[in-house]
Write a structure and sequence with these properties.
It is built from 5 helices and 23 strands. It is mostly beta strands and about 425 residues long. A hairpin with a 2-residue loop joins β8 and β9.
């Protein structure tokens, strides 16, 4: 049977589009493509799955994962089948709803076809009066040729992210699946919480923490090797005696740091390995006999291994340091040592357990256990509202009491970042 010239042209045009215009990620069984690599945040988007359907046909719904760069948040989004793409039964359209909070470049992947990934850009729509890009004109031209009457090409409204009412009825919202830091320069550094309890006397313990990437990665300096990973961080922790008459702060610790951070693994593969190193100062801001401070060089790592559900993970966070100055507390290494080990198990949008262990050179051990669970869902699941339980035992609950041992201290409250 001889194909008509129009049919041959349609197939050649579609092949050229898939090879040279559409961003395509290869998988063992399926390919993933998009008619438009730019997505409007908070709007519907379309992708095309290329390959053979399964034994029962194309699934009505497909789970997908949105992964932000720099080991950022991993979000779950559900894709809904929206009909055949063109006249080829091996190409199926799927629609989803892009989270409004996710901006910039991100990777869309199918967990059931782990190597099928697609790089897209989430950005506000271009100026309506601006001339369409060359890629957009090519896409429109090929769609006009390859779309038969029974499967019309995307309308202008659909192309800009505003789907028809029928398509909107099929779209499922995105759900958060993983923490991580948003890709903006200003972000969160360590857990932030407000908890109450303990003994001698009962008190409120709170911690605030943030970090700032010094050079914008879109600028020239930020693109240089190593320099783009330069951060400033600040953490403040305090014990507040709310039971005494004047409600004094027993001690407040200030911890600024400057460090370099490297991503030692590809963040889109799921598992991650991050290393960092730099300078850190910690003090309680007092003078005289109550003054406590140290200056250190430190190195730390963050290794995360995701289980088969791609959401539950095991994290190991070792940190080591050397003392530059410890004039106010010359024997602090006996109680704090030269390193600590952190462990994290759970899901960032569900139950999370963390542990911190330190051992001083004189054999003094310190333990801290934290258990938290979200009470409010957030698109960035490591940021929200969580019920928080904490148990502390050992030395150095604050800098002032670095050499004082505390028996088990139970506290409960809320955390905003964990």
């Amino acid at each position: 049977m001889t194909s008509s010239p129009n049919s041959v042209f349609r197939r050649l045009a579609l092949a050229a589009l898939l090879l040279f215009v559409l961003p395509v990620a290869h998988a063992a069984d399926w390919l993933l493509a998009a008619p438009e690599p730019r997505i409007v945040p908070g709007k519907p988007f379309e992708v095309v799955v290329i390959g053979k359907p399964d034994a029962t046909g194309w699934p009505a719904r497909l789970p997908a994962v949105i992964a932000l760069p720099n080991n950022g948040p991993r979000l779950q989004v559900e894709l809904t089948a929206a009909g055949q793409y063109g006249d080829d039964p091996t190409r199926q359209r799927y629609l989803g709803q892009w989270p409004a909070e996710v901006l910039g470049f991100a990777t869309l992947s199918l967990p059931d076809a782990a190597s099928a990934r697609l790089l897209v850009e989430a950005a506000a729509p271009a100026d309506p009066g601006a001339e369409p890009s060359l890629e957009a004109r090519i896409v429109s031209a090929v769609e006009a040729v390859t779309s038969p009457d029974k499967t019309p090409a995307l309308t202008e409204a659909e192309a800009t992210g505003s789907a028809t009412a029928a398509d909107n009825a099929l779209i499922a919202p995105a759900t958060a699946s993983d923490d991580t830091v948003a890709p903006q320069a200003l972000g969160f550094h360590e857990p932030m919480y407000l908890i109450y309890g303990g003994t001698h006397p009962r008190s409120v313990r709170y911690q605030l923490s943030f970090r700032y990437r010094i050079f914008d990665k879109q600028g020239f300096i930020g693109k240089l090797p190593v320099i783009g990973g330069l951060y400033f961080a600040y953490t403040q922790m305090a014990l507040w005696d709310v039971e005494s008459e004047s409600k004094p702060f027993r001690d407040t610790n200030f911890r600024p740091s400057v460090y370099l951070q490297w991503k030692a693994s590809d963040p889109v593969i799921g598992d991650s390995f991050t290393v960092a190193g730099g300078y850190e100062h910690e003090s309680n801001g007092r003078d005289g006999p109550d003054s406590r401070s140290i200056d250190t060089w430190f190195a730390r790592a963050d290794l995360r291994y995701y289980l088969t559900d791609k959401r539950t993970y095991i994290g190991i966070e070792p940190k080591v340091w050397s003392y530059i100055d410890k004039e106010d507390n010359r024997d602090i290494q006996k109680y704090r040592g030269y390193g600590q080990l952190g462990l994290r198990i759970g899901r960032d949008d569900a139950l999370m357990f963390t542990m911190l262990f330190r051992r001083g050179t004189a054999g003094h051990n310190t333990y801290q256990y934290d258990l938290s669970y979200p009470v409010r869902k957030s698109i960035f699941s490591g940021i929200g509202t969580f019920v928080h339980l904490q148990y502390f035992k050992g030395y150095g609950q604050t800098m002032l009491e670095y050499n004082q041992r505390r028996d088990g201290q139970f506290r409960a409250g809320i955390s905003l970042v964990r």
